[in-house]
TrEMBL record:
GO BP term (any one): carbohydrate metabolic process
Record family assignment: Belongs to the glycosyl hydrolase 47 family.
One annotated Gene Ontology cellular component of this protein: membrane
InterPro entries found in the cross-reference section: 6hp_glycosidase-like_sf, EDEM1/2/3, Glyco_hydro_47, Seven-hairpin_glycosidases
UniProt superkingdom: Eukaryota
Protein name in the entry: alpha-1,2-Mannosidase
Cellular localisation: Endoplasmic reticulum
Signal peptide start-end: 1-21
Species annotation: Rhodamnia argentea
Binding site for Ca(2+): 473
EC assignment: 3.2.1.-
PANTHER family: ER DEGRADATION-ENHANCING ALPHA-MANNOSIDASE-LIKE PROTEIN 1, ER DEGRADATION-ENHANCING ALPHA-MANNOSIDASE-LIKE PROTEIN 2
One example GO MF annotation: mannosyl-oligosaccharide 1,2-alpha-mannosidase activity
Active site: 136 (proton donor), 276, 369 (proton donor), 390
Length: 574
């Protein structure tokens, strides 16, 4: 038998490494390859327009104000909607530079990467009197640093040999240690805010969000694995387990909670703001660390989302206690979900939700922050588009999984819209109102960390040729390494799977060459199913959850997701 969790792990690898496919079967049409090349260069120019302007007008401050060509020290403002307790004497942490590091490597600019690493090594300090949001600082700064550290060390080509002495890792460890006092609560759930210099302040709010305390494990786990210091991973894992223990009988969570009492404050939730990356991290932690627990939590949580939040291709919010729908709104942040579904193996469902988002993007030219599904109109006070990456991210995953050129066209129209509406002399500006395309003086760091990166990766296969990565919620790549995986029992290795051994090392093999695609052709292949909505029962039989339960009908649940282009994937262990 082919255990379900193993199949899912397999699917992940299948979905994220298309470039390793048997080229003879999956060679895309040359017209599309030429188009991809052109678009790749267009995105490269976009990245450098944003980056060069930041470096000229804003560095070493946090983010660029592209309309006035000035800067903002916004790390201390992220997540602080009312802009309370702002620091008096904080001069930035080169946030956009840190966020650009992994993108520079993906673009192949090792020279600039090396310069940036050198500057950060000599100048970045976290001993500053700034109250920061733990979640934001974790995904942007800690994530940017640990990812860049790995990229700096993983290949001799990255940096001049001997020039890098783990400085980014020392910085990351220093930052991680400054996070730890936030976890000192009766519940183990961390405070949302911490002062980098002074730690926890006396009158700090005890309110945080589900994603605020449930999406720390990738970065803090990686920090522990790199330093050998278990405190970071333990703290993040303890918080995650506590959060999961607070789920309702329907396996739903709320959006906000109290870290001292462990009580929910906001019981309504969905897959967007305040919750999104919680789901993402359960599954990605399973990919990265291979721990069974992450899969169990994710699987229950995912099925509950599909059952209670989904309405056709859309996702609304619901009360965690009753499962009753609360708000019928599409939010721009939800657009990451189809990308996650690709990793899970629910490609048909991912495609149908993605199409709806593309439809809204095309209607306005960009995605409004909030769109009222019941009234088919933009939310009156959330009309903005701050250059968010989520739709580009899902488009990238769907293209990798299907090789369907339609996704290239979607990417092209996104590139064109961004250049048409948001490009200004001094960089790329956020849209204040998608109905008028009035701009706002802010270039968010995630435009360089994510939006440009996912668009570039949509048009480029190079980065994924030799290595498999999990992308954090901020788009920072972390390599999937066998050493970090909890050892899988031998029984989980399917007996009919061919590992080709060369020099005692497992060589990557193409699923195509193993004729795994299409899988429906024989009954035995029919057993290899991808969808998380496919549930093996205790007797070793298999069933598909119904459309109502999971949004996947029984046919596509049991079908491998092979595209017309023949993309199916491959198995690899690194
Ligand atoms: C990013 O900081 C991350 O993707 C986060 O998970 C959600 N919001 C922004 C981008 O929209």
């Amino acid at each position: 038998m082919f255990p379900h969790k193993f199949r899912t792990l397999l699917t992940i690898f299948l979905a994220i490494s298309p470039a390793l496919l048997d080229q003879s079967v999956s060679e895309p049409d040359s017209h599309w390859e030429a188009k991809r090349r052109l678009l790749r260069e267009k995105v490269r120019r976009m990245f450098y327009h944003a980056y060069d302007n930041y470096m000229t007008h804003a560095f070493p401050h946090d983010e660029l104000r592209p309309l006035t060509k000035t800067y903002t020290d916004s790390l201390s403002e992220l997540g602080n909607l009312k802009l309370e307790h702002l620091p008096q004497d904080y001069n930035g942490s080169a946030l956009t530079l840190i966020e650009s590091l992994s993108s520079l490597i993906i673009l192949g600019n090792n020279t600039e990467f090396e310069k940036a690493v050198l500057w950060l090594s000599e100048n970045l300090k976290f001993d500053v009197d700034a109250r920061i949001n733990l979640f934001e600082c974790n995904i942007r700064v800690l994530g940017g640093l640990v990812s860049a550290h790995i990229l700096a060390t993983e290949s001799t080509n990255r940096l001049v040999p001997g020039s890098y002495k783990n400085e980014l890792l020392f910085l990351a460890k220093d930052l991680g240690e400054r996070f730890l006092p936030a976890f000192d609560t009766p519940t183990g759930l961390p405070y949302a805010w911490i002062n980098l210099k002074y730690g926890l302040t006396a009158d700090e709010t005890t309110e945080t969000s589900t994603s605020g305390c449930g999406s720390l494990i990738l970065e803090m786990g990686t920090l522990s694995r790199l330093t050998g210091d278990p405190r970071f991973e333990s703290a993040a894992l303890r918080a995650l387990r506590k959060l999961w223990s607070m789920r309702s009988s329907l396996n739903l969570l709320g959006t906000t909670l109290d870290v001292e009492t462990g009580e929910w404050i906001e019981h309504s939730s969905g897959i967007g703001a305040g919750v999104d990356s919680f789901y993402e991290y359960l599954f990605k932690a399973y990919i990265l660390f291979g721990k069974e627990d992450y899969w169990r939590m994710f699987h229950s949580a995912y099925l509950a989302v599909q059952k209670y939040f989904r309405h056709g291709p859309w996702y609304h919010e619901a009360d965690m206690r009753t499962g009753k729908a609360t708000y019928w709104q599409l939010t721009s942040l939800q657009a990451f979900w189809p990308g996650l579904q690709v990793l899970v193996g629910d490609i048909a469902a991912a495609n149908s939700t993605h199409r709806e988002f593309v439809h809204v993007w095309k209607k306005f030219g960009v995605l409004p922050e909030r769109y009222l599904l019941d009234h088919q109109m933009v939310h009156p006070t959330e009309k903005y588009y701050p250059l968010r990456p989520e739709l580009a991210e899902s488009t990238f995953y769907l293209y990798q999984a299907t090789k369907d050129p339609w996704y290239i066209e979607v990417g092209e129209s996104m590139v064109n819209s961004l250049n048409l509406y948001t490009k200004v002399k001094g960089g790329f500006a956020s849209v204040r109102d998608v109905t008028t395309m009035q701009l706002e003086d802010h270039q968010h760091s995630f435009f360089l960390a994510e939006t440009c990166k996912y668009l570039y990766l949509l048009f480029d296969d190079q980065f994924l040729v030799n290595q498999n990565y999990v992308f954090t919620t901020e788009g920072h790549p972390l390599p999937v390494m066998r050493d970090w995986q909890e050892r899988l029992p031998e029984t989980f290795i399917p007996t009919n799977w061919t590992f080709v051994k060369t020099d005692e090392r497992t060589r990557r093999v193409s699923a195509m060459s193993l004729q795994l695609c299409p899988a429906l052709s024989t009954p035995s292949h029919g057993q290899r199913m991808e969808s998380a909505c496919h549930v093996p029962d205790a007797r070793g039989n298999h069933r598909c959850l119904t459309d109502e339960d999971c949004g996947i009908d029984s046919t596509s649940c049991r079908r491998r997701s092979c595209s017309m282009a023949g993309y199916c994937g491959l198995w690899l262990f690194l």
